[in-house]
Amino acid sequence: MEILTREVLKELLEKGQGPCLSLYMTNPSSGDPRQAQIRFKSLLQDGEKALKDLGMKEQEAEAFLEQAKKLLVNSVFWQNLENGLALFLSSNIFKIYNEPFSFSDLVVVAERFHLKPLFPLLSGEGKFFILGISQKGVRLLEGTRTSTREIDVDNLPKNVSDALGFDTPQRQLQYHVAGSGTSGMKGTVVRGQVMGAEVEKKYILKYFQTIDKGITDLLEGEQSPLILAGVDYLHSIYREANTYPHLLNEGIYGNPDAYSPKELGEKGWEIVFPHLKKEEQIWAERYIDMRGTGKTSCDIEETVTAAFTGKVDTVFVAVGEQVWGLFDEKTFKATVHPEKQPGDIDLLDFIASHTLLRGGRVYVLTPDHMPDVTNVASLFRF
Question: 227 - beta bridge partners?
C-alpha cells in the first residue's frame, strides 16, 4: 500500500497535466458500502459538470472519468473503505488513497491538483505512526485521532531470523554459555549469563538496525511522529539504532502483540496529541511575537512568492477557504482574483504545497484558530 509522503505530493504537483480533478470524500460509516458508492457517484457527477464548464465535451468528460467510474463496481474496494478517500485524476495520473482520516466532501477541477485537505496528514499535524517491536515480529501502524490501521511493509524483516539469517539470538547464547567450561561452575554460569546478555543485545541491535533502515526508507520526507511500542528493555536498544528524526521520547510499554490496532492507536493518540498541540502553539506564539519585524506576513501575494522561493519556514492556512489567482514563475509575481477565472489556482493550496515541499511546516486550521485575522499567516526563514 502506498503511503502519502512528500514525494507523492511532489509528483502530484509537478507531473499533473491539467485539467486535474481532485476528489475528497468521507465514508458515511453506515456499515452499508452502497452509501459510500452513492456519495462517490454524486461527487463524480459534480466533477463531470466542472469539466464541462471548462469547455470539455460530454464524450471527452466521460472518457476522462472512465477509470474513476470503474471503482463504482468494485465491491471489494468499498467493503474495505477507511474513513476517507482521496482521488487524483488527470490525463497522465490516476491515484487513490484510502485513508484513516475524514475529509470534507470536495471536488476541485483546476490546472493543478488541489492538495490542501492532505496537509494535516503530510505535515504530521493529524497523523502518527506506531512501531511495534518484539523478537518475534514487527508491526507498523498508521493512526489518527479517530482510527488506526496496520500497514504491510515488504522491506521490514518479519522476525530476528529473517533479519539476521539464523533462528534466534538464544541459539547463539547457548553456545557461549555451554562453552564456558565445567570448573568453578557457579562463576562460569554468571560469566555465561553476562556474555549471553551482551551477545543478545548485539544481535537485537543488528535486528533493530535492519528495521530502522526499512522505516527510514518508507517514511523518507515524513514529519509525522513515530511512537515505539515494546517491552521495556527493547526501547533503549531500538533508540540506539534509530535514525528517524521524529521518534518521540514517550513510548508504549508492554508486548505490542497483546494489543489490537485500535488499542495501540488509542494509547498512541494519548501520547501524540499533547505533542502536536504544543508544537502548533509554539509556532503560533512565535508568529505573534515576530509580527512587525519583517519576518512574518499575512499577505497572500507576498507569501505565494516566499513559499515558491523556499523562504517560508512555517505557515498557517485556513481550511475550507480558497483564494483564486495566478502565479508567474518567471516574474515571481502572484495575482489575486476576486472570483475564480479560467486557469486559476487556489493560492492557499499553492502556498501550503510549496512550503511543505521545501521542508517547512504547514498547519491547516479553522479560521477562528488562525493566529491572525487573515486566511494565511507565515513565518520566514530569512
Answer: 130
What is the C-alpha to C-alpha distance for residues 324 and 326, in angstroms, rounded to an integer? 7
Residue 185, all three cell numbers: 561452575
Closest CA to 3 of 159, 219, 193: 219
Packed helices 300-308 and 347-357: angle between N→C axes, nearest 10 degrees: 30
Read out DSSP for 112-166? Answer: S---GGGHHHHTSSS-EEEEEE-SS-EEEEEE-SS-EEEE--TTS-SSHHHHHSS
Per-residue model confidence (pLDDT) at position 165: 62
- Gap between the Cα atoms of 356 and 12, Å rounded: 13
75-89 confidence digits (pLDDT tens): 999 998 888 899 999
pLDDT in tens, 339-355: 988 888 999 999 999 99
Tell me the three cell numbers of residue 72. 463504482
Determine the pLDDT at residue 246.
Answer: 94
DSSP character string of 219-284: TTT--S-EEEEE-HHHHHHHHHH---TTB-S--EES-GGGS-HHHHHHHHHHHHHHHHHHHHHHHH
CB neighbours of residue 122 within 10 Å: 25
pLDDT higher than threshold 60 for residue 188: no
Task: Indicate left, alpha or beta for 314 from its phi (over 0: left) and psi (-120 to 50: alpha).
Answer: beta
CATH class as words, domain 291-382: alpha beta
Spatial separation of the C-alpha atoms in residues 43 and 148, rounded to whole Å: 26
Q: pTM of the entire structure?
A: 0.70
- What is the spatial order of strands in the sheet that 324-328 belongs to? 333-336, 324-328, 345-346
CA–CA–CA angle 370, 102, 4 (5° rounding): 90
In terms of CATH architecture, what is 1-122? Answer: 2-Layer Sandwich (3.30)
Which of 331, 301, 327 lies closest to 111, judged by CA? 327
Domain boundaries of the chain, sorted by first residue: 1-122, 128-277, 291-382
**Half-sphere exposure for 241 (CA within 13 Å, toward CB):** 22
CATH code given to domain 128-277: 3.30.420
380 by DSSP, 3-state: which?
A: strand
The grid coordinates of residue 194 equal 553476562
